[in-house]
Every structure is written in C-alpha cells, then in structure tokens.
Amino acid sequence: MTTPKHCLVTGAAGFIGSHLCDRLLELGYRVTGLDSLIVGNPANLEAAKQKDGFEFIHQDVADVTPATLEGIDWVFHLAGLADLVPSIQNPENYYHSNVHGTFALLNACRKAKIQRFIYTASSTCYGIPDQYPTPETTPSAPEHPYALTKYLGEQLVMHWAKVYKLPALSLCLFNVYGPRSRTTGAYGAVFGVFLKQKLAGQPFTVVGDGKQTRDFTFVSDVVEAFVKAAESDITNERINICSGNPQSVLTLVELLGGEITHIPKRPGEPDCTWGDITKAKTLLGWEPQVSFPEGVAQMLENIELWREAPLWTPDSIEEATKAWFEHLGSNS
C-alpha cells in the first residue's frame, strides 16, 4: 500500500484554502495547513481539525523554510492578500505578501525538492482584455496593485519551473464564490456585500447599470481543479479556472431577490470577465459542475454566515473607494 501524498496548503484558514483542505482529507491525503491568520478565519478549519491526517502551522508564508517542508510532497499556494481597494492604499503590504511571500516559498520548495507546486493566480491580471472568452495567451495588463502583485508572483513561479525545474502549475481563478467567503474587513466581493444587505432588508448596491457580467465560479469546482492539477503531470502552464458562462449582476439580484440602488461605475473595472476553459478541459479533464442558480441557492442556504458582516451603504462605499477613484480615475 502506497503512503498518501502529504500536502501543504498555504492560506489554509481562508475561503478557498479551507475548502481545499477538507477535500484533500476526504480523498485520503495528509494535509498540513499553514496560515498567518491575519486574514484567515480559524473557524474555517474546524472540520479539518476533526480529521486524522491534518495539522496546522501558524506562520507567515514568507517565513517558510526547507525545514517547514520536511516530508511535504505537494504545495498548494493560496496565501496572500486579495482585496482590491486596500492594495491601492497599502501596496507595500501586498508586495510583501503576494510577491516576497511567494519568492520565499518557492526558494524553500526548490531546496526541499517539492514534487508539485500549484499557484493561485488571478483573472484580474488580464485587466480589461480585448478578447472574450479570454484565453491564457492574453497579455497581462494589471489595473491595480493587487493584480500586479499576483502577476509578479505568477512570473516567479513560471521562472522557477523553467530554470529550477520546479514542477509547477498556475491556476488563474475567476470570481470564486461560495460558503466561507470573507464576511469581514474591506469593501470587496459582491456576494458578501449583497448577502448582508439582504439580511438587513437594505437595497443591493449595484455598480453602474448592473449589466456587467462576471465569470462566477463555485468554490467546490475550483477545489476539484486544484486536485486535478496536482494529480496531473502538466507543468509550467497557466490554466484558466472558471465557469465559462458569465452572469450579469442583475441576474444575481434576480436570484437573490430584493430592491436595488445604483452607485457609480468604477474606472479600471472590466464590463465582462469570461475565461476560456478549453485548456482546463483538455489538459486537466476539468470542467465546472455547479450551475449559477445552484450556487446562489447554496449561498442563500448559508446566508446566516453573513449575519455579522459589515453593512455597506452607498455612502460608506463611496468613502471606502475614494482611493480607487483618485488613483485609477485618470485611466478611464
């Protein structure tokens, strides 16, 4: 009987990372979760901690050493800062976490001779692309520091794969949603904003006319893509992971049910995100399984998770996004 692979998941207490830990354990893999807990929520790991084969390390990814990786076969790198507006306000923090942290982890992985390294890239790296659905060959054009730091981290990963022969893949994620997505902190993803507004009986704050579309991708589908990526022998590639079926914000409002109020459109934001998933299908044998109505229904079933989330109003959103308009307005 072969010994199961031992996986390290960075950002394990985060939204996607915690779901990935659960799935890897379910499949019989050993899992070490690593998280600084600056952003991650320890409650997300309650299920994992109840299972054999799981351990947790409270550590910043930038402090990982080869000793940390002793006995580790696969590394899933999900740690990092993800909110867009704070990246404009505090680019130093984003560079430390998303670039320096990735560099430190890659160096440790190279020295520890890790068998598989899966990086979490972001579709924001494409900026406002000229082609839809957007293939992986599209030039990167980051519009804000978050996108730039994720792109720089990905470039480090691809360089390590080329020069040091680190068996690495980059999964480019589009608009991931699902239970455990962040409920605290800065103004961010539309689901968290809308679900709290619904609980409070307040209108949904729709940016612009609401006809903009997003390639919403349910978290369980994303997790399966990570597993398939690790189990494959593909290396040194960027692969889009998305539904390939973009939905408008107005469609989301219709599924959630409620009144709306409009707020100004933000410069530097695409009217559409829509990834080409041909590569994921052909190289990984992966395609999404959860339809948008099914995913939204699951979010509504778990709406109480957002009971303590901040309630965003047009006024508080205007205040929170001042830096966005100040620094990106000239790019529109």
UniProtKB/TrEMBL annotation:
Signal peptide segment: none
One Pfam family recorded for the sequence: GDP_Man_Dehyd
Bilayer-crossing regions: none
Alphabetized Gene3D superfamilies for the sequence: NAD(P)-binding Rossmann-like Domain, UDP-galactose 4-epimerase, domain 1
Residues of the NAD(P)-binding domain: 8-299
UniProt protein name: SDR family oxidoreductase
Species annotation: Lusitaniella coriacea LEGE 07157
